[in-house]
Amino acid sequence: MGDADARFLRGLFDEEGSLHAAGRTALYRLYGLEGLLYVGISTCPLTRVRTHLREQRWRSQVIGIRIDYPDDAEAAEREAVWSERPRYNVVFNGRRPPPPPDRAARLRAELAAERRRLAELEAAVPESAAHLRLITRGIRAKRARIARLAEAAEDASHRRTDRGGPATS
């Protein structure tokens, strides 16, 4: 790598070794094998992520990181936490909505959530061969779970229509 390349790469980071954000607030997501673990905002996202990796009890579950720079990071964080339901967020997470009324509807809702988590895993960029193996294992596990849920949802829907009413759990 030449001097110009090295200067360019060093220019991307500040003195603390964090990604230079030019004063913008970043929205970061931390992923594990089972999907989204945490969503947060910071003007120094890599420094903040390092803090999570040092201090949080769930630090060993983190296998991927995604950093975005939305126009309104606070609103984006609220929306991401509310809609994506990261496992370890407390702020903005509120109470989960009540489960759908019947088994088939509950299974369809769970199936949709698992498909979103699979899409997140498939979009993850591996940082090493070991990370790639973890992502691949997570994708295989999600695909197997989705297949089981799809089959269970289909069975529950058939039982419901065969009986002429809602299926019981």
Give the SSE string. Answer: HEEHEHHH
Average pLDDT for all residues? 78
Structural class of the helices, strands and pairings? Answer: mainly alpha
Total number of helices: 5
The radius of gyration is 20 Å
| DSSP strand count | 3
Largest sheet descriptor: 3 strands, antiparallel
Oligomeric state of the chains? single chain
Ends apart, CA distance between termini: 62 Å
Helical percent range?
40-55%
Strand content: 5-15%
Gross morphology: elongated
Low-confidence stretches: none
Q: Strand order of the main beta sheet, please?
A: 2-1-3
Brief sketch in words of this structure:
By secondary structure, the chain is mainly α.
Describe the structure.
- A three-stranded antiparallel sheet has the order 2-1-3, sandwiched between helices.
- The protein has 169 residues and is mainly α.
- It has helices at residues 3-11, 45-55, 73-84, 103-123, 129-163, and strands at residues 26-32, 35-42, 64-68.
- β1 and β2 form a beta hairpin.
- It starts with a helix and ends in a 6-residue tail after the last helix.
- It is built from five helices and three strands, in the order αββαβααα.
- The mean pLDDT is 78.
- α4 (103-123) packs antiparallel against α5 (129-163).
